[in-house]
Amino acid sequence: MGYVIQSAGLFPHVTLAENVSVTPRLLGWDQKDIKQQLEHLFELIGLPLATYGERFPRELSGGQAQRVGLARALAGKPDIVLMDEPFSALDAMTKDTLIEDVARLRSELGFASVIVTHDFAEALRFADRIAVMDAGQIIQTGPASALMANPANATVAQLLEAPKRTAAAVSAAFEGA
Amino acid sequence: MFAEELVVFPSRYVGHLTLSLAAIATGLLISIPLGIYASRSPRLAGPALGFASLVQTIPGIALLALMVPVLGGRIGFWPAYVALALYSLLPILRNTIVGLQGVSPAIREAALGVGMTPAQSLAQVQLPIAAPVIVAGLRTACVWVVGAATLSTPVGAESLGNYIFQGLQTRDWGAVLFGCLVSAGLALMLDQTIRLFELSAEQRSRRLALFGAGGLALVFAPLLLTYSGSRSADRLDRDFSVASQPLDGRTITLAAKSFTEQYILVNLIARRLEAEGVRVDIREGLGSTVAFDAVARGEIDLSIDYTGTIWATLMEREDVPPRAVMYAETSAWLLDEHGVLAFAPLGFENAYAYAMTREQAEANSIQSVGDLAGSGLTVASDPEFFGRPEWTRTRDIYGLADLTTRGMESTFMYDAVAGGEVDVITAYTTDGRIDAYDLFLLDEPAGALPPYDAFILLSPDAATDRALHAALAPLANAISNEAMRQANGRVDIERDSVNEAAAWLGERLSRQ
User: Fold this and answer.
1) In terms of DSSP bridges, do strands A80-84 and A112-116 run parallel, antiparallel, or are they unpaired?
2) Which residue among A16, A105, A137, B127 is buried most deeply as judged by most CB within 10 Å?
3) Closest CA of chain B from A101, distance in Å
């Protein structure tokens, strides 16, 4: 299982290549396989290994760091990737492209992912199934459409209101233009 | 003079370096595991840091001295090593704890997230990230320990401190400066060498690692001198060669307390023994009771002490018997209580005497201490003297209550009386400055001041050593007050080396 954490959590004292290859190394892969995997992953996240491999985390922007964090989580070829608020610390533009990237990677590499988020819109874009949690309890589980059609309680309904209002405001703005 | 200092340089440098490196290595071995453990357990971190800070607040010289009784009276390398190792704990321990606690929780979580075990997380992530902070602690420890190692001289460990302690006592500021500079240089070299290795690891630069290795080579370079240098040949002048086989090839250890007279006498005895083929090991700059304890335990074979010192500090007697009685009683006590043999008196007495300039004595027509009564003059001594029975007795016997008393460092008394700043001082009767300043010693007929006959003490083993006795026999009653005073004056006033003064004294004895 791969794990992406909130603020990337890259190891500051080693290079990006070493950050990404840590799990394969712990799993005892061959040098050759590790090298291949690195090439592949860096290409997928849009940061060429030749340019970025020997850099250190402090040289990256927040979005780049989160991409490398994603690559590190994927390096051991996990079946499942757990993402703990991976986009929360990013600006809107970066967040948008990164969400696209993750969705693309997921379809290319074929892993299942569990994403933890406070932003319902993010969940809607990303998830096949959504579990709403409140005070440590799962309140309702199901595809987005089922939640929309039949919210289990007031909290779920309220949670759905926010993206609806945003969507309405966005539509109105576009129509006005 | 400088050449003589260089002859003993290798062994002092090696002693200093060995002591410092052993202490720092021990500090690392204790502090890092303890720091790792304490960084996760605040309950341990508090007391551990508290203990290390407490150690740090003890003045270095006191910590070193305390280790002697703690280690059951042992002197030399071990007490110095233990004290310095304790001294190195705090900076390394504190920085290990702070460094590890500074690793952000996100990084620690990430380490577990990528599949590391807690041990792998510690070794591959947390320690490397904390390393710059830990290394900064190590560098602080290096500077502290190398500096504090100069204080190991009084507990009998040879170090660069020998230059400083001997220089302070013989007022040889060149030697003091030399000891300070070499020790400071060593501290800085170690500090910078560690810095270079740290930088080379951080920047992955082989060039910086080479510089670091160069620095390390420089630190160890003086060790090569150990094998090329040897004692100066003039130590081996054979003016007293007595044919006596058994001493040949043996090692005999001599103690010198930290003042000029002791350095000269021990050097003189060393010459005689070396002429017999003995390998002499001198522990110099020892504290007074440290030297005696070492002789009583047999760690040192021979020391020179004074009857009045043994009487007051060890036997804790306050009465003042006549000179011969005190000699007999101290000798008997030493043998009964400690198995230490008072081998022979050297012939001179290093006692207190009231001294004035000749003009001032004549002007006030003063011949003896009793004449001071009612004179209203000022008398100076070291600050503790006026609190001791020596003074209260003198005062009461001769009615000196109206004299003004001034406490000052004994080194400055002689200049003060010569310059007329004070009228009377308590001089040491073998101090060379008595002659140099032409001071007049007052008669003290009532015997209020205790006698301080210098005598040779032998450890319980050495006490039965006939060959050693034979070699030392010519020294019995051989040195007059005047001869000792002149020898001291050669060092303290004429700036001769201890070696030269001892050679002069030896020659003078052989002509008697």
Assistant:
1) parallel
2) A16
3) 21
* Chain B residues near residue A73 by CB distance under 8 angstroms: 113-114
Burial class (CB in 10 A: 0-12, 13-18, 19+), B117: exposed
Identify the CA nearest to B284 among candidates B166, B121, B451, B124: B166
When scoring A1, A16, A22 by the number of chain B Cβ atoms within 10 A, the one with the most, hence best to mutate, is: A22
Nearest CA in chain A to B130: A13
In three-state secondary structure terms, A40 is helix
Residue B14: HSE in the Cβ half-sphere, 13 Å Cα cutoff: 12
* Residue of chain A with shortest Cα separation from B107: A9
ipTM above threshold 0.95? no
Check if A149 contacts B (Cβ < 8 Å).
Answer: no
Q: Which residues of B319-331 are buried (b: 16+ CB within 10 A; e: fewer)?
A: ebbebeebbebbb
Cβ–Cβ < 8 Å for B107, A9: yes
Q: How far is CA A113 from CA A40, A146, A159, B111, B384, in A?
A: 20, 20, 22, 20, 83
Q: How many CB pairs under 8 A join A and B?
A: 44
Cα–Cα distance between A20 and A4 in angstroms, integer?
A: 12
| CA neighbours closer than 13 Å in the CB half-sphere of residue B291 | 28
User: Hunting for tokens 């609806």 — which residue is that?
Assistant: A164
Contact indicator for A31, A22 with CB cutoff of 8 Å: no
Distance between CA B308 and CA B327 in Å, rounded? 9
Terminal CA-to-CA distance of chain A, rounded, Å? 46
How far apart are alpha carbons B215 and B498 in whole angstroms?
35
Average pLDDT of chain B, as a whole number: 87
| B129 near A CB under 8 A | yes
Cβ of A22 within 8 Å of Cβ of B116? The answer is yes
Write the pLDDT tens digit of every residue in B80-102: 999 999 999 989 999 999 999 88
The residues, ordered by sequence, that sit 6+ positions from A137 with a Cβ below 8 Å of its Cβ are none
Q: How far is CA A161 from CA A140, A171, B182, in A?
A: 16, 15, 77
Contact A26 B120 (CB under 8 A): yes
- pLDDT, tens digit (0-9, with 9 covering 90-100), for B360-374: 999 999 999 999 988
Helix, strand, or coil (residue A114): strand
- Give CA angle at B228 (B224, B231), nearest 5°: 120
- CB–CB contact A11 B113 (8 Å): no
Q: Is A6 on the interface with B (CB under 8 A)?
A: yes
- Of the pLDDT bands very low, low, confident and very high (cuts 50, 70, 90), residue B2 is low
H or E segment and range at residue B70: helix B60-70
- When comparing pLDDT for B242 and B113, which is higher? B113
What gap in Å lies between CA B411 and CA B370, rounded to an integer? Answer: 26
